[in-house]
Amino acid sequence: MPTARDVAERAGTSTAVVSYVFNNGPRPVAAATRERVLQAAEELQYRPNVLARALSAGRTLSIGLVVPHIRNPYFAALAEQLEAATRQRDHLLLIGDAGGDADQERAHISSFIGRKVDGLILVSVRDQQALISLDTGGVPVVALHQMPPGSSASSLSISSVDAAREAAQHLVEHGYESIGVLTGPIGSPGTDEHLIGVRQAVAHAPHTRIEHRATPVSRYAARDLLRTWLGSQNRPRSVYCATDEQAFGVLNAAWEAGLAVPDDLAVMGGDGTQDCEVTVPPLTALRRPVADLASRAVELLLDRDPSEGPVHLTLEHDLVCRVSCGC
Amino acid sequence: MPTARDVAERAGTSTAVVSYVFNNGPRPVAAATRERVLQAAEELQYRPNVLARALSAGRTLSIGLVVPHIRNPYFAALAEQLEAATRQRDHLLLIGDAGGDADQERAHISSFIGRKVDGLILVSVRDQQALISLDTGGVPVVALHQMPPGSSASSLSISSVDAAREAAQHLVEHGYESIGVLTGPIGSPGTDEHLIGVRQAVAHAPHTRIEHRATPVSRYAARDLLRTWLGSQNRPRSVYCATDEQAFGVLNAAWEAGLAVPDDLAVMGGDGTQDCEVTVPPLTALRRPVADLASRAVELLLDRDPSEGPVHLTLEHDLVCRVSCGC
DNA sequence: CTGAAAGCGCTTACAG
DNA sequence: CTGAAAGCGCTTACAG
């Protein structure tokens, strides 16, 4: 692989000038010189070594994303939007999949920090408790969920309480006498908020029964749990899921049990990924503003002075009605 | 951020020894010295700068993966398995999403090469024609599909011809008088092979009609096409899809059209992702050996002498029967 | 507008 | 077993 030195020699100039040409600065280069450099680089097939540049300039033009599970379509969609947002800012997105494991998540974070990413976007598998001591060695972090007070990370999220309340309200308005609430594990970000929101909605509908179950955020885990739940005496008339991923499992379990959606069982998802459009039947869901989350996260990392301290923003969500809730 | 120099000073030794401790070599360190170094590193919260290490050692302990679309569950599953395989070898997996775009794919490849990845795993959006001139500047590449002869990249794939033949044979045995074949775009890797395989199967079943359609590899594109196709006079009795992604769209279109699967329309997918378990109804599919592809790909990159030239391996697939084909 | 040189934070022969 | 020093390939003040 040719280096800047090789290019400089061939162009009859110095490595400094090669650097100025490839970075459009910080100093001007005579048009003729620039031409010679470009020419030489072309001939030698020169590609700047990004590592060396990063080491000396202190910026890597990269952003790390760590998600719990890349197979979860919500996180895949997030990755896709972040890819676009970082690309627009001439940065590279590095995606790390934690595989649902806290240690693997830590390893990724640590590895990204070692690689000197310019910023880190995190959806954690760990609970609030564990996130207090998140240490990122000076790299700015944006979490896409609530963060415990005192953390140095910024956060971007929807109001899970409001969202869950609206979702439950919608089910109440349909007249369903019972609502099953399916969330991720107790302690994981958002779980409490979902329950609070649902209870708020039901406070005005005293005849509505609610029942809560938790599973890992996996369609297979959700399906397995629902097999039992739907087979029991007091199976719910409707199920609100904190995530789309779990809702997909519910749809399958209903089908297995011979229950029609929405006539026997109404179902709602909690992310609003595009996948909801093509499930059978299409899935009503709360929708998180994925594109907005992505562009705001990148802005926060790249344009904000970290010394100003963390910022916590709440973004808007909406409810997309499709067949599965009875609309 | 503390550097090796800070640690060395505090431990009363040299940066060389700090390096030996953190890399377990290449030279031995006295137990007492090692202790002091570890102690000092702990106190300072030292994390080696991976960039500097990479620049000087010439290896980054990272592998790049470029996929057409991270939202496609087959590619997400691949990423997940590769993550595990690279982790086992103490390497980091960097995931790049090409967003279905050839330029974006090129940008990712180029960026990974600039970052000096130790190897590159590629699923390309480009057709065979364009891949002839793939230039990776000495970085070893494994493609997870066929590569044009003459390319320097190795490849790992299943036999699409055999797979498609078996799938079509299965549909023929069910007695379906017509098979719709839904593939990715003409010219993209595998498209021809799928058609050849299906034709081979039908050669022995002269009364079976086949008809071919192509869409982008997207469930939404597939759904849109199927809306028309299923509404037409000669809609197929069964559809074999080259990808799961497209099959998901077909299931939805069938539901929209009021057609029961498999009684009115049998459907088969082409990747065999786990998602097929929980569609409504569960999807019969050809299954690609994802875990095997992943571990073999990493082996090829890390254990093979690149000067030996590219190698082309065909891995085993199988057919997983579920409800959607009529089993 | 351009060159010579120091420095980014590591690794690794070269000496001892 | 350990230290002093060169070098990885860039960037960027310092001079001119």
Automatic annotation (TrEMBL), chains A, B:
One of its GO terms (molecular function) is transcription cis-regulatory region binding. Keywords: DNA-binding, Transcription, Transcription regulation. Residues 2-57 form the HTH lacI-type domain. It holds the Pfam family LacI. This is Transcriptional regulator, LacI family. The lineage of its organism: Bacteria, Bacillati, Actinomycetota, Actinomycetes, Micromonosporales.
